[in-house]
Write a structure and sequence with these properties.
Distance between the termini: 32 Å
Low-confidence stretches: none
Radius of gyration: 16 Å
Shape: globular
CATH class: Mainly Alpha
């Protein structure tokens, strides 16, 4: 079943920051990891990822550094900052509240 891209749009920053919380990554690595972990549900395109990375970096949530590879190419690695960890924590809390409320409405949750 194909997932509506609008459902993913509001949570992409949280997904990317969650990956970077584990380790520093370069763009294509994030795309592949996200696709693999989501069982191919999340198929992020470079045209979506890189503007998001620039936005997160401008906000101070991630940093980047360039590394020369063995073949002489330069690869940009991204890492989460302390501010990014705080932002991710708030986004997770927001997600828990939202997804819990949705599950209550569609009958998949139990109100405590």
């Amino acid at each position: 079943m194909k997932i509506n891209k609008g459902l993913m749009a509001g949570s992409t920053d949280m997904l990317i920051l969650s990956l970077l919380e584990e380790k520093e990554m370069y763009g294509y690595e994030m795309i592949e990891t996200l696709e693999k972990r989501s069982d191919h549900t999340f198929d992020l395109k470079a045209g979506t990822l890189y503007p998001l990375l620039h936005s997160l970096e401008s906000a101070g949530y991630i940093t980047s550094r360039e590394v020369s590879t063995e073949n002489g190419r330069v690869r940009k690695y991204y890492a989460i900052t302390n501010d990014g960890i705080g932002f991710l924590d708030s986004r997770r809390q927001e997600w828990e509240k939202f997804s819990g409320a949705v599950n209550l409405v569609i009958g998949k949750g139990v109100k405590a």
